[in-house]
């Protein structure tokens, strides 16, 4: 049985703990590894190592930090398929989905390679007579990231490359459900030439997280996960005077106007709703059909019914299993609630099993129509391959529906009308908007900008906002008196 190592003080080490968490393969729930719950001494050692490494890393020239990221990016591209295969085996994701997971992380590393331009300050000459004012951007210190199971490559790569490129050191606490992929990322980062102590990786649960949230040497906390945990982490971190950015739940709506391209709408919504088994915070879980477009709902359900879950290396599989039995039980419970509360179940994936892998966490694609806002399947984030279809008469009603939802992560509108698209993007209270694009995840030179209960904090992930999150600004006001300029025949300048 593989025991997942930790990265502490530049070495991959075995924990001395007696507490372990099983890492299981979601296709059959067999145990493939054990993740240690780091001891208090190991946590302290990792934090102390990161604090010591910061003293020298912050002095490394910014272009040299960028070169580490360049080497890291090259290694990630070289090993993308290997990482994706490992990721598939511990998450159940299809290989194509896993390749996308890794690639989106690589794109953030490419943004970290641009750190010299992102670290530039500002200058104004003569803010007053003979007085200049200028600012520098400087790193914070030791930062930490707590990442979820659903994107074990992309989300760690959202965090530590940007933080480290900005001059900080970083402690990563990946999900205990799939820690093998983050450890592989750490191995390649060390191969890229990262100095000892710049990155630490520890494992565990709430006890280890609480250590990171309360330790006085941790300056900033990044988190992606559920709403209750996000609220807890944000409050605990800020109560201990730390910066925090916490990305939490979502209920993403796609609004379909009657003038939209029907074939494109159906094709895009199939993957956006049940792809990755719905286990992504930008999944479209609610389709809002405006006017006559509601006539397309049954056609959409028919197309979704053609999607078949399967193994990671099955090229015909549309998505894999849910991450664990608890997730499956929760999704099945919400599907049953939808039926009990009066929604019409056009497609029911509750009884799906994969022959030969009956012990896996399988749920087939599921579609409801006649969903209302008081139903549990609408109010709760299902995080499974379930699409809720609703109908309204006007665009204004659709906007009101979306804006009344407590979440504001992502949304999209399908329409041929520029005026309708303009009105929607301007009035909708959601941080990331797609126009004829189902899942509007921004590229890393922008920032990931969820709103409302989808995000707790001020500055978002990657892009320019990430640099601001992981740095402080120092402003200098200087004055030099011309009377102090040295003069005299003995002043010479040696230019050689």
TrEMBL record:
It holds the Pfam family Aldedh. InterPro entries: Ald_DH/histidinol_DH, Ald_DH_C, Ald_DH_N, Aldehyde_DH_dom, MeMal-semiAld_DH. Its EC number is 1.2.1.-. It comes from the Bacteria. The keyword Oxidoreductase applies. GO terms for molecular function: oxidoreductase activity. Residues 12-476 form the Aldehyde dehydrogenase domain. Transmembrane segments: none annotated. The keyword Transferase does not apply. CDD domains: ALDH_F6_MMSDH. It is an enzyme of class 1 (oxidoreductase). Keywords: Oxidoreductase. PANTHER family: MALONATE-SEMIALDEHYDE DEHYDROGENASE, METHYLMALONATE-SEMIALDEHYDE DEHYDROGENASE [ACYLATING], MITOCHONDRIAL. Belongs to the aldehyde dehydrogenase family. This is CoA-acylating methylmalonate-semialdehyde dehydrogenase.
């Amino acid at each position: 049985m593989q025991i997942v190592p930790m990265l502490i003080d530049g070495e991959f080490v075995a924990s001395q703990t007696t507490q372990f968490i099983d890492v299981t393969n979601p296709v059959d729930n067999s145990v493939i590894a054990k993740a240690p719950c780091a001891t208090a001494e190991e946590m302290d050692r990792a934090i102390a190592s990161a604090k010591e490494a910061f003293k020298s890393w912050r002095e490394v020239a910014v272009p040299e930090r960028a070169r580490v990221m360049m080497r890291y990016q090259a290694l990630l591209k070289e090993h993308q398929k290997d990482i994706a295969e490992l990721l598939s085996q511990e998450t159940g994701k299809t290989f194509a989905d896993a390749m996308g997971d890794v690639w989106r992380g690589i794109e953030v590393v490419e943004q970290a390679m641009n750190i010299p331009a992102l670290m530039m300050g500002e200058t104004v000459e003569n803010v007053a007579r003979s007085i200049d004012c200028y600012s520098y951007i400087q790193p914070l210190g030791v930062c930490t990231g707590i990442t979820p199971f659903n994107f074990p490559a992309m989300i760690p790569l959202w965090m530590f490359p940007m933080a480290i490129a900005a001059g900080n050191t970083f402690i990563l606490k990946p999900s205990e459900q799939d820690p093998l992929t983050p450890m592989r990322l750490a191995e390649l980062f060390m191969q890229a030439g990262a100095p000892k102590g710049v990155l630490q990786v520890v494992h565990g649960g709430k006890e280890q997280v609480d250590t990171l949230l309360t330790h006085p040497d941790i300056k900033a906390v990044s988190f992606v996960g559920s709403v209750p945990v996000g609220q807890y982490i944000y409050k605990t971190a800020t109560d201990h005077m730390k910066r925090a950015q916490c990305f939490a739940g979502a209920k993403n709506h796609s609004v379909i106007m009657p003038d939209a391209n029907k074939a494109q709408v159906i094709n895009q919504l199939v993957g956006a709703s049940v792809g990755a088994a719905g286990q992504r915070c930008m999944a479209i879980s609610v389709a809002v059909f405006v006017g006559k477009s509601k006539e397309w709902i049954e056609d959409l359900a028919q197309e979704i019914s053609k999607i078949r879950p399967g193994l990671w290396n099955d090229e015909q599989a549309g998505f894999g299993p849910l991450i664990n039995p608890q997730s499956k039980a929760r999704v099945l419970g919400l599907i049953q609630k939808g039926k009990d509360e009066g929604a019409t179940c056009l497609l029911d994936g509750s009884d799906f099993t994969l022959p030969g892998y009956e012990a896996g966490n399988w749920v087939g694609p599921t579609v409801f129509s006649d969903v209302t806002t008081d139903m549990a399947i609408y109010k709760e984030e299902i995080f499974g391959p379930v699409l809720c279809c609703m109908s309204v008469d006007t665009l204004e009603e659709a906007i009101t529906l979306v804006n009344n939802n407590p979440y504001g992560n992502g949304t999209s509108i399908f329409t041929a009308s520029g005026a309708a698209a303009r009105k929607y993007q301007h009035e909708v209270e959601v941080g990331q908007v797609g126009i004829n694009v189902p899942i509007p995840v921004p590229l890393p030179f922008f920032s990931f900008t969820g709103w409302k209960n989808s995000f707790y904090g001020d500055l978002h992930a990657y892009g320019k906002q990430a640099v601001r999150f992981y740095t402080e600004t120092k402003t200098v006001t200087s004055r030099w008196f011309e009377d102090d300029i040295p003069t005299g025949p003995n002043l010479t300048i040696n230019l050689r």
